[in-house]
Protein: SDR family oxidoreductase
Amino acid sequence: MSWLGLEGKTAVITGAGGGIGQALARAFSGQGARVVLVDRTLERTQPLAAELGNNALALACDLARAEEIAAAADRVQEQGGADILVNNAGVLRPGLLDSVSAEDWSMMLSVNLTGYMLAAQAFGRGMVAKGAGALVHVASVAASQPQPASGAYSASKAAILMLSRQLAYEWGPKGVRSNTLSPGLVRTPLSEAFYTDPETKTRREAMVPLRRIATPDDMADVALFLASPRASYVTGQDIVVDGGLTQSLMGLVPRPGYA
Structure:
């Protein structure tokens, strides 16, 4: 029996084909939850669904398309509905703010923010109806620390924090909790290019007080807690999982007598 109390729960995970998404799926499945793997194409999630067995369902759904989110939610509702939603899907289109195109800006907001809201509406409707549920939204330390040359990324992640807080306020009386998880530096297939150069990897590790780059499993462990009954009195919070990275700013300020 899982000490987290997740056996028999249905956890919907968006962006399930990515590095953090796959870790989330394996973690929830390992705790006895049924997992619904949502990503843009079935090719990104079917191998993982096969690995996890009968307790996994793969669904194709583009979070930039409201009709696809609704269809995926209807499919889950037909099978008993969701108990947990982990909003994890995200896109990044690099660009400086003086030249980022309206198309790229809108695309990032449509997935990173509007997609989160629509997914919360669609999958959370059943939670509200039965008076219980948990939402976990993957944001980023970029929500509070501006990430340059990243277009709408930081703005979209900052907005996720407020979206989650508003959901926590509005849906708390209905038994549904909402929290955010903000990763720092995480080594995933998408970010692997940053760590293939030993010098860059060493310099990045040196910025983190814990002196290592996070793994997707580090994020999944915190998401498990936030989604579980163990966090039954936690809502409207942002849990920063960055190894202390965001506490390092003042250490960069030159001081007499210190290197």
